[in-house]
């Protein structure tokens, strides 16, 4: 079932008439859809239980969503088993109690009281007394290192000791963003430095006289860079002497994305390198010691085994029989996901069907938001209860009412320089940058992705998409490829550039099996289908043709027909109103994830409305601090144009009235751009005020166009 677009209207202008008709038709569609869809998808989500599996659709290549397990923290058991590769060290001997508070001249008293059992009101239980810290690299389900086993809490734990020691080593910082002076560890940036230092231990330096051991049993050697790090062998630069984890946390001058808080980063004392920032498995950024202590208290339930009649341990009083009940407590685990400075948190799924409960994300209906893993490679997740039907309808209504030339719904374009209408993207799109719902959804999206603060420079406006019957969007990467570095903006996210990092796709209409319109991930495989039962392209094509489903609708061997074949044999997501899906376009190291290739399948029946939100790994073009290709900037400066302020859209067409222009060609200055002769398609470009476009015939310039002030301009010969 999907809403149908009406197109008859009264005496108003045709575009407003169409828009109004669409609004009414869409609302009717939304209002009626629960009556037509047997079990309404969203209502199913209203009950706290997850939706039932969708395996009942025999021919449905859409994802089969397994049930939510009763104990969603699947990670703790699996990670402890997977952690077998990391050798556990025998527990260290008990650490002496902290010195009296007065003796801690460097320490903020508030930190000390968080950890110091003597000064706590709750009986002084050290929050880390039976918890081991386990570290993962960003996006990795397997830990890379773990804490050496600590002594259970009769006294201050190794963890508290290390945290307090490292807190004392982090200098006082001034947080310019809050204009308050914070003591060491009070700011999230100082906290990052402190935790990184505690995990890896202090690095000998002339200025640090004290020495204390690393919390991690291997000082984080297992958590080294996953990319080739030139500093590993660079004795002169000191890189080789650093624990590997420090080289992971500080990706180096050529790879540390410059975020808006770059200047606030506090280096790891002794090492002088940038620290990691740390997130929970669910993406929550850990910004202070109090929060870390809270997480430690909440970390899982310890497994205990009790044997009676044992010997009494030191300090334990014997029971009636003169013996002690020895309670063997298996230590709990606090998993931290370490993200290099300047980089962005990424979920670390282990298996399809895995759940991530996002208790920190609030939505209008106060329903729990959770992720369910649809695919590991590409990384794709369903985001349950991300938005509701009301918001879904509001997005469509606003898109239809939009009249501004830059934002209204119109034939889609693609590419870094945007404006080229593409024959392989036949849908329509528009942008919602200021709508109330769009704003709310953008903020929610950032929270889901693990940002502790909203950052406008990291998101595009909400892009709204409409697909009518037969329209589609050929498989592509959302990551923008500018490998020749032709743009002022530097898109090379592996290094200092920024690019699209993650996409949240929102669906606003219900499409039934056979209606088409799925989002297909052409490198992914359908869930729940055995490897041996996967269908190859040719068999799927034969089956499609035999079914006759697209006969008379799509041309044989057209790219659209080929897409339907893929949509029916590869991982595809069927739209439902208020369904949201998250996927990543980059790997954790910033390289593009080629497996994230995806497209919008041709709509066979009805209409599809969707929207996407692209989140970048750093400031996108036009925002302060966005990375630039300096050579292009210089070139433009020499040509007297500034790209940021003067971008224009220009179309060049041949009216076929001047015989001398029969074989004309368009050049940007002296660079060939495209054929502009009789019968050649209009050339659409993004260009800049003052740019010169030359028309040449037989290599001689016959006409020059200079781009003027108009935002959109057409030049003809
Ligand atoms: O419509 C879809 O399902 C996908 C849209 C998409 O990939 C895009 O707009 O980048
Ligand atoms: Fe896309």
From TrEMBL:
Compositional bias ranges of the Basic and acidic residues kind: 135-145
Chain ranges passing through the membrane: 20-43
Region of interest (Disordered), ranges: 67-110, 135-185
Pfam families named in the record: 2OG-FeII_Oxy_3
Protein name: Fe2OG dioxygenase domain-containing protein
Organism annotation: Stephanodiscus triporus
An annotated Gene Ontology molecular function: metal ion binding
Composition bias, Pro residues: 88-100
Biased composition (Low complexity): 76-87, 172-181
């Amino acid at each position: 079932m999907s809403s149908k677009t009406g197109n008859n209207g009264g005496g108003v202008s045709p575009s407003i008439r169409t828009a109004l008709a669409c609004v009414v038709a869409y609302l009717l569609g939304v209002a009626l859809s629960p009556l037509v869809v047997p079990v309404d998808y969203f209502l199913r989500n209203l009950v706290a239980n997850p939706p039932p599996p969708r395996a009942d659709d025999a021919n449905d290549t859409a994802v089969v969503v397994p049930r939510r397990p009763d104990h969603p923290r699947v990670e703790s058991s699996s990670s402890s088993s997977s952690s077998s590769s990391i050798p556990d060290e025998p527990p260290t001997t008990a650490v002496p109690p902290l010195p009296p508070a007065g003796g801690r001249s460097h320490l903020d008293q508030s930190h000390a009281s968080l950890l110091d059992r003597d000064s706590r009101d709750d009986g002084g239980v050290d929050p880390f007394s039976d918890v081991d810290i386990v570290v993962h690299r960003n996006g990795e389900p397997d830990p890379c290192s773990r804490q050496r086993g600590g002594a259970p809490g009769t006294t201050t734990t190794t963890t508290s000791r290390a945290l307090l020691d490292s807190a004392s080593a982090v200098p006082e910082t001034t947080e310019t963003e809050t204009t308050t002076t914070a003591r060491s560890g009070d700011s999230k940036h100082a906290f990052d430095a402190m935790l990184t230092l505690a995990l890896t231990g202090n690095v000998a330096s002339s200025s640090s006289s004290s020495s204390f051991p690393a919390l991690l049993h291997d000082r984080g050697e297992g958590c080294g860079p996953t990319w080739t790090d030139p500093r590993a062998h660079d004795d002169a630069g000191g890189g080789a002497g650093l624990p590997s984890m420090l080289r992971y946390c500080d990706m180096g001058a050529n790879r540390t994305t410059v975020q808006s808080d770059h200047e606030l980063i506090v280096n790891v004392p002794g090492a002088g390198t940038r620290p990691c920032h740390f997130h929970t498995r669910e993406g929550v950024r850990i910004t202070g010691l109090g929060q870390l202590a809270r997480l430690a208290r909440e970390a899982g339930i310890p497994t205990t085994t009790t044997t009676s009649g044992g010997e009494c341990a030191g300090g334990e009083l014997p029971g009636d029989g003169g013996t002690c009940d020895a309670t063997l407590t298996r230590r709990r685990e606090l998993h931290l996901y370490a993200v290099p400075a300047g980089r962005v948190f990424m979920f670390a799924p282990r298996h399809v069907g895995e759940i991530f409960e996002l208790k920190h994300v609030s939505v209008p209906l106060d329903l729990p938001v959770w992720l369910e893993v649809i695919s590991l490679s590409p990384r794709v997740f369903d985001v349950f209860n991300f938005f509701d039907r009301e918001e879904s309808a509001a997005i469509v209504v606003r898109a239809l009412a939009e009249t501004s030339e830059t934002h209204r719904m119109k034939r889609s374009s693609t590419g870094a320089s945007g404006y080229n209408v593409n024959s392989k993207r036949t849908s329509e799109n528009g942008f919602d940058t200021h709508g109330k719902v769009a704003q709310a959804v953008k903020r929610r999206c950032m929270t889901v992705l693990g940002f502790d603060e909203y950052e406008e420079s990291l998101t595009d406006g909400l892009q709204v998409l409409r697909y009518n019957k037969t329209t589609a969007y050929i498989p592509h990467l959302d990551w923008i490829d500018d490998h020749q570095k032709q743009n002022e903006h530097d898109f090379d996210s592996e290094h200092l550039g920024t690019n699209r990092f993650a996409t949240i796709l929102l669906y606003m209409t219900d499409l039934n099996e056979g209606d088409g319109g799925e989002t297909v991930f052409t490198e992914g495989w359908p869930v729940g289908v055995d490897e041996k039962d996967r269908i190859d392209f040719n068999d799927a094509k034969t089956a499609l043709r035999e079914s006759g489903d697209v006969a008379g609708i799509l041309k044989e061997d057209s790219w659209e027909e080929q897409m339907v074949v893929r949509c029916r044999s590869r991982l595809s997501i069927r739209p439902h109103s208020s369904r949201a899906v998250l996927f990543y376009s980059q790997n954790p190291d910033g390289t593009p994830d080629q497996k994230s290739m995806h497209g919008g399948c041709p709509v066979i029946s009805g209409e599809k409305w969707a929207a996407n939100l692209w989140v970048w790994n750093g400031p996108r073009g036009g925002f302060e601090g966005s990375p630039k290709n300096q050579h292009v900037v210089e070139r433009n400066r020499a040509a007297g144009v500034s790209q940021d302020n003067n971008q224009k859209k220009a179309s060049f067409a041949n009216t076929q009235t001047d015989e001398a222009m029969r074989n004309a060609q368009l050049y940007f200055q002296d660079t060939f751009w495209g054929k502009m002769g009789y019968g050649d398609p209009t050339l659409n470009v993004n260009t800049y005020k003052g740019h010169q476009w030359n028309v040449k015939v037989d290599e001689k310039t016959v006409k020059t166009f200079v781009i003027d002030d108009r935002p959109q301009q057409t030049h003809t010969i």
